[in-house]
Amino acid sequence: MAIEAVRVKINQLKTEENELVHEIEGREKLIHDIKITNDELDRNLTTLRNKKGLLIVNLKNLEKRLADKDNELKNKYKVNKDHKQVTDELVGSQREDDSSYIDKLKLAQSDEHTLSAQHANTEQRLNNSQTQLKRLQAVLQEKEA
């Protein structure tokens, strides 16, 4: 009778050990998946930072071009001040060009704001994943101890 009770207890312990091994394997896989996700988020964050940098450079180039066009317009207006009709035509076409540049500048600024928001969101997701990874590692260490 006592031997049978010991065998039952051994079987229970083996079953519990198998369940714990399965749980640990599942958590290890989850930790691995989170690490992969973190790597992907890091790559996405780097890509967003690069795109933001490019947008800033493009924005500065557009601002410079707009300033150059503005100076060019002022110079043309001054040079042709005595020729009203010619000046009016130049100003009209230049304003259309300036309007196009302003639209592009506003679009670039909008893109920059969008990328900044995406960047903040990606950083938050990365922080959340890292926090979850640390918790799971702590639980895993606790289970292994």
Which labels suit this protein?
145 residues, 0% strand, 96% helix, mainly alpha, 2 helices
Structure write-up:
By secondary structure, the protein is an all-alpha fold. It has a single domain, classed as Orthogonal Bundle (Helix Hairpins). The chain has two helices and no strands. The chain has helices spanning 2-79, 84-144. The radius of gyration is 33 Å and the shape is rod-shaped. The chain starts with a helix and ends with a helix.
Proportion of strand residues = under 5%
Count helical runs. Answer: 2
* Overall residue-averaged pLDDT value: 80
Just give the CATH class. Mainly Alpha
Which residues form runs of ≥5 with pLDDT under 50? none
CATH architecture: Orthogonal Bundle
C-alpha termini separation: 34 Å
Order of helices and strands: HH
Helix content: over 70%
CATH topology (level 3) name = Helix Hairpins
Number of strands: 0
Quaternary state reads single chain
- How many distinct domains? 1
How would a textbook summarize the main sheet? none
Structural class designation = mainly alpha
CA-atom Rg in angstroms: 33 Å
Q: What is the 3D form?
A: rod-shaped
Keywords: Coiled coil
Coiled coil: 3-79
Structure in a nutshell:
This protein is mainly alpha-helical and 145 residues long. The chain has helices at 2-79, 84-144.
Give the secondary structure arrangement, pairings included.
Blueprint: H1 2-79, H2 84-144
Helix pairs in contact: 1-2
Keywords: Coiled coil
Coiled coil: 3-79
